[in-house]
Design brief:
Strand 3 (79-83), helix 5 and strand 4 form a beta-alpha-beta unit. Helix 5 runs parallel beside helix 7 (130-137). It contains 15 helices and twelve strands. The protein is of the alpha/beta class and 356 residues long.
């Protein structure tokens, strides 16, 4: 059995760790591949970051030493999968030096922008091209959407689209009775809550016309006049039930370079539960949403029009929900992705063995 070390940046509290690495463990095992996942920064780090707290430097150093000990067990593994980043704040050439086995680089966000824009842009002269260097040195690259793959292929031709997907045997639709309030929902994290203000005016307008409820799962809900806003903590065992309480799932995004790297995972979760969607016409959203399962919008007025359409046509919502579920089964399921990832891993090992 092949042994692969998955090196995630964050612990399982991060959706990308769960959905791009950990959920593959059983399926890959059936393909003769033993994937073992080890994270650098654990769940306590993420919880502290979301709460605005600082992690003691000693804890970070200890995490780094633990990661190095896993990497240097070179004889125990045939290859690595590096998800996001091996170590923050170190140059790409050093990461490549530390990776003593062939590696697959996996990413589901525009991480190549991390040291070019935003809070860390001062490091651009030193680290601006870090991810280009890491991508160039990879035996293969798995990118979460078509746009990310296009970027990666400019640097490494052995790059593949591997969308972030769900286990359709776990995600399911629960038939719900029509409530008094039209219920829309959003699921995410505090860091992605920054896109929610785009919904304030459209939902306020809709709320002035009749009862509307917004459920925000895992994020920070904005204040919106005329509607009921419910903010709940994300819990893994409850997330599917929360999604099933939505009449419509929402995914607002800004049209900027970072957002265009998003993998539309919220939409995939909603649609897997048979929930129709409204989303910003940005990035991977355009690939996931089709006219029979949701609506893509650009402006506030288009948001209002789409919300009204969904509110006023419950039969259409049901039809869109069923179409969305079929699309996830066909294109965005774990069952479809496991053979794809297994094939990429086997190809990497075969090329290593034959000196390609």
């Amino acid at each position: 059995m092949l042994k692969i070390l998955g090196l995630s940046l964050y612990g399982p509290l991060a959706a990308s760790t769960r959905y791009r690495l950990e959920q593959y463990i059983p399926g890959l095992s059936e393909c003769g591949i033993d994937l073992q996942v080890h994270h650098l920064l654990g769940d306590e780090y993420l919880r502290s970051r979301f709460q605005g707290k600082k992690i003691p430097l000693a804890t970070v150093i200890q995490a780094g030493c633990k990661r190095l000990s896993h990497i240097f067990r070179r004889h125990q593994f045939d290859a690595y999968i590096v998800h996001c980043e091996l170590f923050p704040l170190i140059p790409g050439w050093l990461e490549r030096l530390l990776l003593v086995k062939p590696y697959i680089y996996d990413f589901d966000d525009a991480f190549y922008l991390k040291y070019r824009i935003g809070n860390l842009r001062a490091l651009r002269p030193l680290l601006g091209n870090k991810f280009n260097t890491v991508i160039a040195g990879a035996a293969a690259v798995t990118a979460g959407n078509r746009g990310l793959n296009t970027y990666a292929q400019q640097i490494n031709t052995n790059s593949h689209v591997l969308p972030t997907v769900v286990d359709v045997q776990r995600y399911h639709n629960v038939k719900k009775s029509e409530g008094a309030a039209f219920t829309v929902g959003w699921i995410g994290s505090p860091s992605t809550s920054k896109y929610l203000p785009e919904l304030v005016r459209p939902l306020s307008v809709l709320g002035s016309e009749g009862p509307v409820r917004l459920i925000v799962v895992g994020g920070i809900a904005p204040k919106i006049e005329n509607i009921e806003v419910i903010q709940v903590e994300w819990e893994e065992e409850k997330e599917i039930a929360y999604i099933n309480s939505f009449d419509v799932g929402l995914m607002p995004l800004a049209d900027d370079e970072w957002a265009r790297g998003k993998c539309a995972f919220k939409l995939i979760q909603y649609m897997a539960c048979g929930v129709p969607v409204i989303a910003s016409r940005v990035g991977a959203n355009i690939d996931v949403v089709q006219s029979d399962n949701g609506v893509l919008v650009r402006t506030e007025d288009e948001w209002i029009k789409a919300l009204r359409k969904m509110r006023n046509q419950p039969l259409m919502r049901q039809q869109m929900g069923r179409a969305g579920r079929r699309r996830i089964e066909d294109k965005y399921s774990l069952q479809r992705n496991v053979p794809l990832l297994a094939g990429i891993i086997n190809n990497v090992i075969d090329r290593q063995m034959h000196g390609a």
